[in-house]
What does this fold into?
Amino acid sequence: MHRDHRVTRRQFVRSTGAAAALFTIVPRHVLGSQDAPSANEKINIAGIGVGGQGWGDIQNFRNENIVALCDVDDQRAGEAFNAFPNAKRFRDFRKMFDEMDKQIDAVMVATPDHTHAVICKEAMNRKKHLYCEKPLAHSVHEVRTLIDAARESGVVTQLGNQGHSSGSIRTFCEWIWDGAIGQVQEVHACCDAFKDVYSQIRNLPRRSETHTVPAHLDWDLWLGPVAERPYNPMYVPWNWRGWTPFGTGCIGDWICHVVDPVFWALDLGAPQSVQAEADEYDPVEHAEVYPPGTAITFEFAAKGDRGPVKLVWYDGDRRPPRPKDLEEGRNPPGTGAVVIGDKGTITYGSHGAGGVRIVPETKMQEYKSPEPTLPRVPGHHADWVNAIREGRQAGSPFSYGGPLTELGLLGMIAVRLAGTKLEWDGPNMRFTNSDEANRWVKPEARAGWAV
Ligand SMILES: NC(=O)c1ccc[n+]([C@@H]2O[C@H](COP(=O)([O-])OP(=O)(O)OC[C@H]3O[C@@H](n4cnc5c(N)ncnc54)[C@H](O)[C@@H]3O)[C@@H](O)[C@H]2O)c1
It folds into this structure.
């Protein structure tokens, strides 16, 4: 995989005078990716992984030029392929980049979690702007690699935590900064969705089944950086999220939606420690799957004007404590958070603090919201394309979405060592009290697939 120095059609036209245009080739790396298209010029977008969430994502870019679609499964990608008949089709993203490098300005990545890093890295080597689904990557090492590559390439990045572009997340931040509930000390975040998908313990024996790979799927490309194993329909599509080599479990799937509001409002950054409790979990027997339920505690040191914060994540049947001020008949969110300050409590749901309320409702009614200070944005996908046009960063760039993703990945590691309080040195990307935990910070990738 190489850094490409060819020029795009747009750069070629814009960077040269009419006469000189015939003779001058200006390499992309010289101009940099900030060569923003003009307001009415369409962006040439390639979609990689367009069968599931990516099918929804790519439709949000339909007003741009969808020039290429890449998917390892012709059947799963069928609707997208049919909707954009002019887009060139590929199975292998490396071939797509080699063949269409000059035509592609920006890339949408919505493959399973384990292939985000290798695809995004290649895209950034070629200076493509990136919209990557959450979580950013599958290991802390991969996240850091992508953050570095984004900074060095200067491309416009956006993680697919779409709630980050909501009005409600901005309202929540403004309330917190206004002191609506005083100093925040504790956050209890939770997800009660898809319990059967996130815990695949019951399916472990099925790994020895024999299945023929369907003709519409390239299984080897689907595996990407994961060591070769027999195809099994229990992994694809969608259910891979409950298997540790591919997915990131409930916490990895949801933290970028559910914890995003407090991560922003409290500028949480990296935790000092992480400790998990896990239901029915045996670290050897269950190494490839997630437990049916977890409670994972993160501790954050005091920072700026705020004191230390404790964040507890709950999934499966584990639930956050009921806020003491919550009226009878109301329940804490099934997927969302309870945010406790020294002067009150806020609850919110998923995807950008949906349904955010101060509790009890009487206190909510008395509260006078501050004037909005954060600019509102028209939508997450629109924010990214606007950012590319305006030559600025989008609202949830990898430098923000990466550290947010890391929380989930650290949680996954803590589950493997449930019961042990792991001390995390964020800047040096290592646990200071567990060599065993450090093994999972940078898991080995299949030869040829490492980032
Ligand atoms: N933002 C959200 O609300 C949201 C919702 C769902 C999923 N997601 C994220 O989207 C990503 C995809 O999840 P999903 O539920 O759509 O999974 P999925 O299995 O349903 O779909 C993944 C698609 O990617 C294709 N694919 C797999 N490997 C590929 C490769 N190497 N190259 C090209 N295509 C490949 C598959 O064939 C399929 O079409 C995940 O990272 C997930 O966390 C985000």
Confidence is low (pLDDT under 50) at residues 1-34. Residues 48-54, 70-73, 76-77, 93, 110-113, 115, 133-134, 160, 162, 221-222, 224, 236-238, 253 surround nicotinamide-adenine-dinucleotide (CB under 6 Å). The longest helix spans residues 398-416.
